[in-house]
Structure formats: C-alpha cells, structure tokens
Design goal:
The chain is mainly α. Helix content is 64%, strand content 3%. The protein has 13 helices and three strands; from the N terminus they run ααααβββααααααααα. The protein has a three-stranded antiparallel beta sheet, with helices on one face. A hairpin with a 2-residue loop joins strand 1 and strand 2. The protein is globular. The relative contact order is 0.16.
C-alpha cells in the first residue's frame, strides 16, 4: 500500500510590514539619471575634465578681473558674476547637446552656417559695436554676442557633413574646393572685415585640421597653406597696428622704445610669469592684474595663472588640455559613424589649437592675436559655443555604437585613428 505523504504546514504569510515594497523614485532623480546616462567611460572622462576646467576658469576670472571690474563697474565681482551666469547657461546647453542624435547635427549643419553668417553681417549694422579696434560684437540690450564664435561652432558640424557626403571624391581637389572654399572664404572674410585677425586664424586652423583628418591629400593641403600664407602676409600689411605688432614680435620685444606700446602686454606677461616662480605668489595676489596687463582676465589670463599659481598652475592647465586631447582621441576610436569621427577631430583642432595659440601669445612665441583660452578666459560667447561643441562630442561618446540609421560610407582615405 502506497504511503501518502501529508503536506507540511504552510509557511505563514509575511506581514504587510515585512513585505518588500517598491518605493517610487522621484521624477527629478529619474530625469537627472537620464541626462547623464551613457554607456562609455569616455563620456564621463570628457565631461569631468570640462567641468574641472570650467570651475578652474571661473576662479581665475574672479581673481584676474577683480581690479579692472572695480574700475569699470564699481564692483569687484561684476565680471566674475557675468562669467558665472554664462557658465550656468552653458551647462544645460552642453547637457542638452549631449542628448542629441547624430541625425540632428547632420540635419541642421547647413542652417547653422547660414545663421552664423547672417549674425556676422549684423555686426556691420547699428546692432554692432567696436571694442579694442575690432568690430565683431553685437549689442543685444542686456547682453552682447560675438558671432564669429558661432561660425566656429557651425563649421565643426558643417565641414564633416560635407566631407562625408563627398567621401569618394576627396582625391579630386575641385570637389573639395567647392563648396568648402567659398563658404570658408566668406566666413573668414566677414571676420577680417571686422579686423578680428585672431578669430579668422582659428577658423582657418579649424578648417585645415578638419580637412587633414578627413583624408584630403597632403599636396592639396600644402597648396592651400601656401595660398593662405600669401594672403595672410597681404592682410598683415594692410593694417599699421598689425605691422607694428609683428615687427615688435620679430624683434623679440627687446627694443625699449616698444615697451610702452606693442610689447606692453607681452613684456608684462613675462614679468608676471617670472614673478610667479615655481609655486606662485598665491591666489589673488597678482601684481600684473593691477592694470599692468591689459585683458588680464581674457587673452592674458595664462600670465595671471603663472603669477598666482606658478609653474605648477601652468603645468596643471597644460595637463588638463592634454587630458582633453586624450578624451577626444578615445572618442574618435570608439565612434562608428565617419561624421562623428571627423566632427570630433574638428572640435579637437578648434579647442586645442586655440589653447596653443593663446599660450604661445603669452609666451611670446606668436604675435598678439587676441584669442581667449578655451573654458578658462572670460567671454560669454566663447564659453557658450565651446561648451556646446563639447556637448556635440559628448553626444557621440554617449553610445559606443550608433544606430543603423546614422551609418554612412566609410571615408576611404581618412587619417582618423581606426
């Protein structure tokens, strides 16, 4: 006879207090998590480096601008507060740009260039005004804008878009020259008419760098560089102030008769760097910012960094830009869309090239051009456009592989790191 197994006593049900209850996550926390959601460490590495440079720049703008801000605005913190406001506006723009798909940047690339050119044309209307001998700003009531910065941002997405569309034609110079040549010539020409040689130089550098990474033949680039060099020499001779600055630079600023004019910024920048030594005189203790160095919070902020934080502070800035370069290269390597690769290379050329020019000017390696140090110098338009450009790269770094809809033909002769 089979033995019947009696069921054991049932386990008592958990009391309501002991039951696992899923607590709803606040909506704000979910939104922030989605905003920072990413699959790659490159995203967070680039974002963290950018935020560190941004905060460091705000501190240095506060320190370097306090005296001149008191003279001009009657408030030690006026310029630093404006820069902080631009940073607060730029951070959401950066994060929003990082959420955009690649198709968004391709769709609006052409319109971005048109907008930049139109705004640059408005500089020569009643809305434009001149400062420091350059007519390159728009007076929009409560704030000002520099359209040449928007042109840089527009070109870093328009140039890759054109180059990817013509990937199979890059070996033929005429297909590279048109339409890139006329569009870039218009952008550079409008900026030069406003007498802003620094911004024009960065636009040319950005364009050449993008063409190089896209795989345009070196002999074609060599011809372009030769033509640009001849053109630049002609432009330099058209302005007396430019000729004097170049002559002073070629002389090494050793002529005592030039110390009160063209060499004033350079020589006092050197003095500030020498005064700082290895460890600096301390944050806020710069002597150069007491009206000895013009544009101490902008073009020559690196001199103030060297004086207050010494060689250690200068090396820290250089290390941060090297880290930015590493971030860009890693994003280029993981990107699958040729547009993303070339656009990242364009942003890298822009930011690192401009940083090199700014530091080289302070050190006297290049003549004074009036180019800010990205993410560090004061300047609302430059800060906003640079942050949006980094947001564009972050949108490429968010996912290791793009969607199939964003796939494009591989650029056969691209020099982008595989």
């Amino acid at each position: 006879m089979a033995r019947v197994q009696r069921p054991g006593p049932s386990r008592p049900l958990n009391r309501p207090s002991e039951q696992a209850v899923d607590k709803p996550v606040p909506t704000a926390i979910v939104a922030v998590r989605k905003l920072f959601a990413a699959e790659t460490p490159e995203f967070f590495l680039l974002l963290g480096t950018t935020l560190f440079l941004l905060v460091f720049g705000l501190v240095m703008v506060l320190s370097s601008s306090a005296i001149q801000s008191r003279i001009d605005d009657g408030d030690f913190f006026a310029r630093a507060a404006r820069q902080g406001l631009y940073a607060v506006i730029g951070l959401p723009l950066l994060l929003l740009a990082s959420r955009a798909p690649i198709s968004f940047w391709k769709r609006w690339a052409g319109w971005a260039v048109i907008l930049g050119v139109v705004l640059q044309l408005l500089v020569f209307t009643d809305l434009g005004y001149e400062t420091g001998g350059n007519r390159g700003w728009l007076d929009l009531g409560s704030f000002t804008a520099q359209p040449s910065e928007l042109i840089k941002l527009a070109l870093v997405i328009w140039l890759p878009w054109i180059l990817v569309k013509r990937a199979h034609l890059l070996d033929e110079w005429r297909y590279v020259l048109v339409p890139i040549g006329p569009i870039v010539a218009v952008c550079v020409g409008l900026v030069l008419v406003g007498n802003d040689l620094g911004s024009a130089s960065i636009i040319i550098l950005l364009t050449l760098g993008t063409l190089f990474f896209a795989g345009v033949r070196l002999r074609h680039l060599a011809v372009a560089v030769a033509v640009i060099a001849v053109f630049a020499a002609g432009v330099a001779t058209l302005s007396l102030s430019r000729r004097d600055r170049i002559d002073a630079w070629l002389s090494g600023c050793v002529d005592p008769n030039l110390l009160g004019d063209e060499c004033w910024q350079t020589v006092h920048g050197w003095e500030a760097l020498a005064h700082g030594g290895v460890f600096g005189v301390g944050l806020g203790n710069s002597a150069g910012k007491w009206s000895w160095i013009p544009e101490a919070d902008n073009d020559f902020i690196f001199a103030i960094i060297g004086e207050e934080l010494g060689l250690v502070g200068c090396l820290l800035v250089l290390a941060l830009f090297v880290l930015l370069a590493i971030c860009f290269v890693r994003i280029i390597r993981i990107a699958r869309d040729p547009f993303a690769k070339i656009a990242t290379a364009a942003v890298m050329t822009w930011i690192l090239g401009q940083a090199f020019v700014n530091i080289a000017v302070v050190l006297g390696v290049l003549p004074v051009l009036g180019v800010p140090l990205p993410l560090v110098s004061a300047g609302g338009s430059a800060l906003l456009t640079t942050m949006v450009a980094i947001g564009v790269v972050l949108s490429f770094a968010r996912h290791r592989r793009q969607s199939p809809a964003d796939d494009a033909p591989v650029v056969r002769s691209s020099r982008i790191i595989k």
